[in-house]
């Protein structure tokens, strides 16, 4: 558990990062590498911080942030022709997130590359919870500052309102500093937030039957109307696949003794692993046959296919072997996934499949499903 001193170190890191990031705005630096580099260093440092080997953590954070920033040297922020073939707003945050998890493992293992799957899941889970708490704290604090500024603007003075609402420099600084402040608070109370995993474990008993029911129902509807827009079919199956993969990885954080006591749940889980592979195969079939695919989309589909194959294979093994197979598969595919995404953002790499066909857009497909649901209701 972190001490008050450690919390102040995290807050100071956030303050320095906010100042440097704001300075890049004031200097009007448009090169993506210079803008994102200090932010990455700060985030990698505070999200992996555990009060030990601080200087080594700072050095590794600089190194990893430099690697993640180098592909964007010489290109203006969000305006690079070399990244038109990928969805940078999705691809790059995922790359940073996965890379951070490996950086987290490296630091918490004392600088050794002994990759523990338990530690890998801890990195995924803790980072997600800490970022969510930090973002919630940032928005809540900004609103608490914004609301009084409206009152002061109408009664006393418009100074605070002008600083908060119309001054872009101050808004950037305040928002980023509050985000780091929230992350520091979350890291100090990480053991409390860690207890949310026990709630998640309890929910797993109820999630699986509902997930199976939703997946099977959609599959039956799909068989009755295979002429539907391919983009919609791919989006629906991809969403179900993503939720299923997240579920399976969360489920295998259970204690083995608990799982053995629920035989029907284990049987349902084995069948769903095979069904998951079928959904992934349908998704890949429609994607490769009917849609134009960007390189990062190829990565997602290919990794999902390999994960589906590994999970389906583990369904025919014992519980202990199945867990080991899934853990090894997740670890190695995570490395491949990280390297492939890094290659995807390297200029001038450009690779698109089926350029003459309509581009695949998971967002458009999901949005169409959502709008159709609202119209029917």
UniProtKB/TrEMBL annotation:
<feature type="transmembrane region" description="Helical">
    <location>
        <begin position="32"/>
        <end position="50"/>
    </location>
</feature>
<feature type="transmembrane region" description="Helical">
    <location>
        <begin position="86"/>
        <end position="106"/>
    </location>
</feature>
<feature type="transmembrane region" description="Helical">
    <location>
        <begin position="232"/>
        <end position="252"/>
    </location>
</feature>
<feature type="transmembrane region" description="Helical">
    <location>
        <begin position="118"/>
        <end position="139"/>
    </location>
</feature>
<keyword id="KW-0472">Membrane</keyword>
<feature type="transmembrane region" description="Helical">
    <location>
        <begin position="264"/>
        <end position="286"/>
    </location>
</feature>
<feature type="transmembrane region" description="Helical">
    <location>
        <begin position="298"/>
        <end position="316"/>
    </location>
</feature>
<feature type="transmembrane region" description="Helical">
    <location>
        <begin position="332"/>
        <end position="353"/>
    </location>
</feature>
<feature type="transmembrane region" description="Helical">
    <location>
        <begin position="7"/>
        <end position="26"/>
    </location>
</feature>
<feature type="transmembrane region" description="Helical">
    <location>
        <begin position="169"/>
        <end position="186"/>
    </location>
</feature>
<feature type="transmembrane region" description="Helical">
    <location>
        <begin position="57"/>
        <end position="74"/>
    </location>
</feature>
<protein>
    <recommendedName>
        <fullName>DUF4153 domain-containing protein</fullName>
    </recommendedName>
</protein>
<keyword id="KW-1133">Transmembrane helix</keyword>
<feature type="transmembrane region" description="Helical">
    <location>
        <begin position="198"/>
        <end position="220"/>
    </location>
</feature>
<keyword id="KW-0812">Transmembrane</keyword>
């Amino acid at each position: 558990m972190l001490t008050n001193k450690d919390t102040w170190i995290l807050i100071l890191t956030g303050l320095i990062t906010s100042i440097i990031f704001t300075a890049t705005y004031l200097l009007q630096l448009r090169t993506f590498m210079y803008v994102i580099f200090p932010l990455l260093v700060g985030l990698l440092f505070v999200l992996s911080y555990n009060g030990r080997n601080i200087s080594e953590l700072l050095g590794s954070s600089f190194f990893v942030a430099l690697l993640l920033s180098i592909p964007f040297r010489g290109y203006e922020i969000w305006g690079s022709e070399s990244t038109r073939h990928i969805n940078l707003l999705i691809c790059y945050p995922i790359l940073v997130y996965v890379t951070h998890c490996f950086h987290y493992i490296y630091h918490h293992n004392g600088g050794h590359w002994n990759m523990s799957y338990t530690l890998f899941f801890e990195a995924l889970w803790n980072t997600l919870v800490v970022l969510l708490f930090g973002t919630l704290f940032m928005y809540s604090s900004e609103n608490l500052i914004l609301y009084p500024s409206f009152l002061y603007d109408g009664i006393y003075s418009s100074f605070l309102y002008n600083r908060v609402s119309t001054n872009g420099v101050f808004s950037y600084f305040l928002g980023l500093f509050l985000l780091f402040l929230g992350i520091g608070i979350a890291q100090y109370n990480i053991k409390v937030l860690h207890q949310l995993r026990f709630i998640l474990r309890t929910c797993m008993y109820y999630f699986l039957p509902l997930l199976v029911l939703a997946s099977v129902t959609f599959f039956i509807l799909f068989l009755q109307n295979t002429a539907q827009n391919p983009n919609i079919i791919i989006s629906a199956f991809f969403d179900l696949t993503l939720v299923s993969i997240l579920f399976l990885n969360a489920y295998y954080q259970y204690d083995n003794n608990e799982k053995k006591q629920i035989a029907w749940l284990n049987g349902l889980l084995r069948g769903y692993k095979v069904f998951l592979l079928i959904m992934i195969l349908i998704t890949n079939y429609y994607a490769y046959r009917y849609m134009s695919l960007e390189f990062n989309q190829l990565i997602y589909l290919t990794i999902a296919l390999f994960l589906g194959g590994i999970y389906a294979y583990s369904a025919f093994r014992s519980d202990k072997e199945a867990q080991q197979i899934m853990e090894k598969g997740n670890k190695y595919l995570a490395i491949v996934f990280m390297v492939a995404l890094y290659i995807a953002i390297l200029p001038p790499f450009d690779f698109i499949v089926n350029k003459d066909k309509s581009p695949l857009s998971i967002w458009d497909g999901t949005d169409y499903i959502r709008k159709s649901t609202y119209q029917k209701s």
